[in-house]
Structure formats: structure tokens, C-alpha cells
Write a structure and sequence with these properties.
- Helix content is about 35%, strand content about 10%.
- The strands form two sheets. Strands 3-2-5-6 form a four-stranded parallel β-sheet. Strands 1-4 form a two-stranded antiparallel ribbon.
- Belongs to the uracil-DNA glycosylase (UDG) superfamily. UNG family.
- Its EC number is 3.2.2.27.
- It holds the Pfam family UDG.
């Protein structure tokens, strides 16, 4: 991915410049070009690879939620972890996130899974891997994206004064293990997947705890309630 080829908020562009100039990024770009040359469908579309960063400027980051890979079904992924495009059925893990929100902060259920409302308030919805081949989960792991998103987390850790990191599952907890807990709040819980949500994700109260921390630091809390109509974003 050549730096000149992407649309990216200026704060991120400046801090991540070394990543775009790195050898691993050149190899990743070549891999993605070859995937498309071979006729593979890659999600999300190219203009949305960095959507999480573009919607949530570095200076506005208050919360980081880490995912793993984009959804690999048609019409789902649009660059934000756990989020799907309007009109797509809410995925099981997000259903469980909504359940926890309801008991924690009185969230009212909505019939969509479009989370841009959070991203625009400073919630960085970051996947570890930013692309995937259609119908092939984890197909772009180990190609270089993990290096890039490690760098994103390091930038947040170093540049932002007080951020809440919501780390759900062992993968996210390991990836952000270096976060400075003297400045940031690190919240850990099992993944909200139906396979593990009952082992401690339900009842973790991460959303109210995040807002309490932000208020204590003199920052605006997050409005976790999503609009009924995703087109309001």
C-alpha cells in the first residue's frame, strides 16, 4: 500500500508514515494485487481498508475495541470491527454486545449492526487484519496487517493521554499486552462470541466502566445508544 494511494486522516498519516514506507507493507500490497489478479473477491472494498482510522482521528480516540478479521460474507465488512453495513443481519457476537449494553447502560435494541455512530465519537473499531478473501475466514492473516495494526495500537498508547482498551478474548489481550496501564484503562473479558460470552463477557460492564473512567479524566463519555435508522449517521 503506497501512502499516496490511500485516503487517511492527516494525524494517522503522519504517525504511520514509516509503516507505509516499510518492506512488509510493500509485500502486503503485492499480495493484495495478486489476490485480485487471480480473481479473488476481497472484503472490504479498497476505499474502506482504513475506514476505522479515517472515521476516528488520532486526536479523538477515547476507546479502542479490537477485533480479529473482517467478516467474509458479501455486503458485511466495511472497515470497522464487529460492524456490518445497513441491511445486513446483525452477527451473533454483536447480538451479544447489544445484550451486554442493554443490561449495563440501558441500550435500546436496534435492528442493524452499523456502528459508525461509535466511531465518530472516538471509538476506534480496529481489526487486527484489515482484509479477507470472500468465504475464507482468516485467509489474509500473516501477510503483514498485524504489523500495521500493532503500530496503530502503539501510536494510541504513546500519543493519547487517557484511552479505554476493551480487550475481548485471548487474541486481543495478547495483541495489546504492552499498553501502559498507568495512563490507560485496560478492560479484559472473554470474547462476545456465542461460544464464550457466557464465560464472563455478560456482566463485564465494560461500557459503563469506560464512561466512568472518561468522566474521571475530564473527557466526554460515549453515547453507546445507536440511532434506530443507520442512515442518520
Amino acid at each position: 500500500m503506497a501512502e499516496s494511494e490511500i485516503r487517511l486522516e492527516d494525524g494517522w498519516r503522519e504517525k504511520l508514515k514509516p509503516e507505509f514506507q516499510s518492506a512488509y507493507m510493500a509485500e502486503l500490497r503485492a499480495f493484495l494485487v495478486e489476490e485480485k489478479r487471480a480473481g479473488q473477491t476481497v472484503f472490504p472494498k479498497g476505499s474502506e481498508y482504513f475506514r476505522a482510522l479515517d472515521l476516528t482521528p488520532l486526536e479523538s480516540v477515547r476507546v479502542v475495541i479490537l477485533g480479529q478479521d473482517p467478516y467474509h460474507g458479501p455486503g458485511q465488512a466495511h472497515g470497522l470491527c464487529f460492524s456490518v453495513q445497513p441491511g445486513v443481519r446483525v452477527p451473533p457476537s454483536l447480538v451479544n454486545i447489544y445484550k451486554e449494553l442493554a443490561t449495563d447502560v440501558g441500550f435500546q435494541k436496534v435492528n442493524h449492526g452499523f456502528l459508525e455512530h461509535w466511531a465518530r465519537q472516538g471509538v476506534l473499531l480496529l481489526n487486527s487484519v484489515l482484509t479477507v478473501r470472500q468465504a475464507a475466514a482468516a485467509s489474509h492473516r500473516g501477510k503483514g496487517w498485524e504489523n500495521f495494526t500493532d503500530a496503530v495500537i502503539r501510536v494510541v498508547n504513546d500519543e493519547c493521554p487517557h484511552v479505554v482498551f476493551m480487550l475481548w478474548g485471548a487474541y486481543a489481550q495478547k495483541k495489546a499486552s504492552f499498553v501502559d496501564r498507568s495512563r490507560h484503562l485496560v478492560l479484559k473479558a472473554p470474547h462476545p462470541s456465542p461460544l464464550s460470552a457466557h464465560n464472563g463477557f455478560f456482566g463485564c460492564r465494560h461500557f459503563s466502566r469506560a464512561n466512568q473512567f472518561l468522566l474521571e479524566k475530564g473527557l466526554e463519555p460515549v453515547d453507546w445508544q445507536l440511532p434506530d435508522d443507520p442512515s442518520e449517521e
